């Protein structure tokens, strides 16, 4: 999808950093620390989707639940809009103290997981300045997710869903990482 109009946020004022990595790579844990140390707002696409799934009256609840259980990608329009709304709310709420004049700094965790999301968000919402990619071995990721699954209550921290999430990551998310690497916007950790 392309757009000739301005993006929802001015990228001279709003900094967007995408944070990617396989399931269990440590994206959420590291984002929490980075957000505290560098005054970023941490937005997790997965958390926003889970909140929307549980919101009374959401038209997307069933769709989101099915995608999460199957480890597949929720349609780009849904994820992108949830992020845009959350960014606008955060800019508004911090405007009187830390972020004057529409400024903002966002770590967007678990997004974009597919090329179409990257294109849509960069063109319609706000272009990313940087992409951080966390990597480790699949064995480590599986071990962490199964451990987390004992207490997380997440429907997708089980071995069947984990296998599907890995497949989605290799098939759909790796091309996104390669895309930003070619643009020299990628940092590997
Ligand atoms: P996470 O919390 O990052 O592990 O994501 C859990 C699940 O939420 C994924 O397996 C997808 O089903 C869905 N999800 C998370 N982020 C996205 C995204 N950017 N686009 C579409 N679906 C997503």
From TrEMBL:
It comes from the Eukaryota. This is Uncharacterized protein. The keyword ATP-binding does not apply. GO terms for molecular function: ATP binding; nucleobase-containing compound kinase activity. Keywords: Kinase, Nucleotide-binding, Transferase. The keyword Transport does not apply. GO terms for biological process: nucleobase-containing compound metabolic process. HAMAP family: Adenylate_kinase_Adk.
């Amino acid at each position: 999808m392309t757009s000739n109009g301005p993006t929802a946020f001015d990228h001279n004022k709003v900094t967007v950093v995408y944070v990617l990595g396989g399931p269990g790579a440590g994206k959420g844990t590291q984002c929490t620390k980075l957000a505290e140390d560098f005054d970023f707002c941490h937005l997790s696409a997965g958390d926003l989707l889970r909140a929307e799934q549980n919101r009374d009256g959401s038209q997307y609840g069933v769709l989101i639940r099915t995608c999460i259980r199957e480890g597949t990608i929720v349609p780009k329009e849904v994820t992108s809009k949830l992020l845009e709304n959350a960014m606008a709310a955060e800019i508004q709420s911090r405007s009187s103290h830390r972020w004057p004049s529409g400024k903002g700094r966002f770590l967007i965790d678990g997004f974009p997981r597919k090329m179409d999301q990257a294109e849509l968000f960069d063109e319609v919402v706000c272009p990313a300045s940087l992409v951080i990619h966390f990597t480790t071995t699949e064995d480590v990721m599986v071990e962490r997710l199964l451990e987390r699954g004992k207490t997380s209550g997440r429907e997708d921290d089980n071995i069947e869903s984990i296998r599907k999430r890995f497949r989605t990551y290799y098939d759909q998310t790796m091309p996104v990482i390669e895309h930003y690497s070619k643009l020299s916007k990628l940092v590997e950790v």
